[in-house]
Write a structure and sequence with these properties.
Shape: globular
Structural class: alpha+beta
Strand order of the largest sheet: 4-3-2-1-5
Helix content: 25-40%
Number of helices: 3
Distance between the termini: 27 Å
């Protein structure tokens, strides 16, 4: 199955890649856990979740992560999704002020090519 990487992000102990499929649906593939020595307390888990399109995925990402999404680390952004992400970053800054921080890595990825 041919897929195009649209977005990749990391979190402490995990992360995910978001792909567009040929039919424009979006697939999130991620994993987390395994940071602790005790696998029972912090098991490695992985997932694959399908979405109608990137806009639906982005809304889910923002809703699921609440105000913590800005703390995730953007690794890659495809040019076609940058306007959607940029709008959310600008909204974050307007609501929290530029001094609130944590948006710099998002702005860097948005403005300097595709990889942070």
């Amino acid at each position: 199955m041919e897929k195009t990487l649209l977005f990749e992000f990391g979190t402490e102990g995990g992360g995910a890649e978001v792909y567009r499929l040929p039919d424009n649906r979006v697939l999130e593939m991620g994993s987390s856990g395994g940071m602790l020595d005790d696998e029972e307390e912090d098991p490695v888990r992985s997932w694959e979740v399908m979405f109608v399109d990137f806009e639906h995925w982005w809304k889910h990402f923002l809703t699921k992560n609440g105000s913590f999404w800005i703390y995730f680390y953007p690794i890659f952004m495809h040019d076609e999704v940058k306007p959607i992400i940029k709008s959310s970053v600008e909204q974050y800054i307007s609501q929290n002020g530029a001094e609130a921080g944590h948006h710099e890595k998002w702005e860097y990825c948005l403005n300097s090519g595709n990889r942070a």
